[in-house]
Amino acid sequence: MRPRSLRARLTLLVTGAVSFAVVLCAVLSWFIIQMLVLSQVDQSILENQGDVKYLLHECRPEGTQGPYFEGMATVLRPDGTTCSLGRAIAPTQEDRKALEPIPEPIYRNGTTTDGKRVRVVTVNVEPGLAVMAARPLWHVERTLRYAAVGLGGIAVLGTLGAAMAGLTVSRAALRPVGELTRAVEHIAQTEDLDTRIPVRGTDEIARLSSSFNAMTSALAGSRERQKQLVADAGHELRTPLTTLRTNIDLLLRSEQTGRSIDPDAKRRLLVNVKAQFAELSTLVADLLQLARGDTDHEPHVEVAFHEVVTAAVERARLRGAQVVTDLEPWYVVGNATSLERAVINLLDNAAKFSSDNGVEVSLRGGRLTVRDHGPGLPEEELPHVFERFWRSPSARGLPGSGLGLAIVAQAVAEAGGQVSLANAPGGGAVATMDLPGTRIRGSESDKSGKRSDS
Among positive and negative, which fits the CA dihedral 157, 158, 163, 166? Predict the structure, then answer.
């Protein structure tokens, strides 16, 4: 059954990998020890070949048992008969190959005629004569058993150590993941977006922690902006709604009590109500535009920005604004509706403060400038002009919601550009909008590129 826990799977993976390495090393070590021990036995047998050769001639040609010898040796004759010195060793077909001259001895494990396991080395001593010398293997087998027990114990201890190491590694590796899990659970339960995870190091887990912190910061900022928008909207809506309610109450009270209102006063009340409705409509439209910009992620397309500016200028002229233009073609990637609304807001803002000299609009190299000939702004107010609901003290008596330039900043940021407002030399203010783009439409640029390649 597959473990459900990532920590358990990681522990098993580390334990299995280390255990496999330990067991493999133990097995290889056992074979190396076996090879070394047998090599020592073979060497000792070869060192005693001189004694065997000395006794070799004591074997009678017709005999099968030679003189007494403390070791174990058997002489192989060309006719296939043998003569044993000490305990007899049963020859094999491989041993008989040594009757012919061979450059190297023949090594093998075998048994004596009474069943004892021995190490056998067969050597050609002279043409047609070979000697099988042997040593018992009981001490070798005992050494190998001890080695197997020792290496097995090491393998068991290594496996246990691997399990502990795997558990330690998994805990250390997954500690940031646990912190991330607890942070997510905490946010889900408390909706506290100020929760942050400590970032340690520069590995993948650290990058994940940094990304999580960036995400929660962005969410916290978005929620704070939403709360601020709702609070500011409530504050801004309170004044026109109160005025509307007061005026409507006056009209209703006049009808209920039968006391007529002077026609001029009634007309002023109705004009005031209409103006308040217009202000409310503008405010609600601006709020919807800001809210839509915070959540709308429509794909951007190529836009002929000079045509957008031309359309916005025509709308401004219909409202009575005097606008002078100097436009060059410029193509950007963005949302045409949002960009047109941004340009209209700049034109409305400039026309509101401009004198009879009108508004000057210029578009060159992706930079749109809208200049008015009004009084300008105090330097200390310039950093606040793009804040939501901020209005200059000198403009609070003029119509507007304080959201126009905030909408401009939002639309320009969505298109990857920048916008600023500064006092113009010689008086007035100039708004500058920089948008990345090209002078040639993208499709035309592609066609010209293909033609140039052919």
Answer: positive
